[in-house]
Amino acid sequence: MKRVHFFIYDELAEQINEAIIRWGFSSQSEFYRYLAMEFIRNERKLKTTDDTLKDHTKAIRMIKTSQRKTFLDPQT
């Protein structure tokens, strides 16, 4: 089994410790293993930056289109 060492900010460490207690993890190691497994399991669901940008662009175009209709025809 591999050992992983890293540093985190104190504020994040406090939030992690609260989550460990709230969710009943037996240790920080168990918490981090669980997070790693969940990330890998859900990785396919995550959007790439390009997908996110496309979604935002589409939303902006929809808003512009709806505003244009409202501006041109106040009855709409």
Written account of the structure:
By secondary structure, this protein is an all-alpha fold. It folds into two domains: 8-45; 47-76. Helix content is 70%, strand content 0%. It contains three helices and no strands. It has helices at 10-23, 28-42, 49-72. The mean pLDDT is 83.
Write the layout of secondary structure elements.
Elements: H1 10-23, H2 28-42, H3 49-72
Helix content bin = 55-70%
Number of strands: 0
Written as H for each helix and E for each strand, in order along the chain, the element string is: HHH
Determine the mean pLDDT.
83
Strand portion = under 5%
Separation, N- and C-terminal Cα atoms: 64 Å
What is the domain total for the residues? Answer: 2
Q: What is the C-alpha radius of gyration, as a whole number of Å?
A: 22 Å
Shape: elongated
Structural class call reads: mainly alpha
The total count of helices amounts to 3
Q: Unreliable runs, pLDDT <50, ≥5 residues? A: none
Give the biggest beta sheet: none
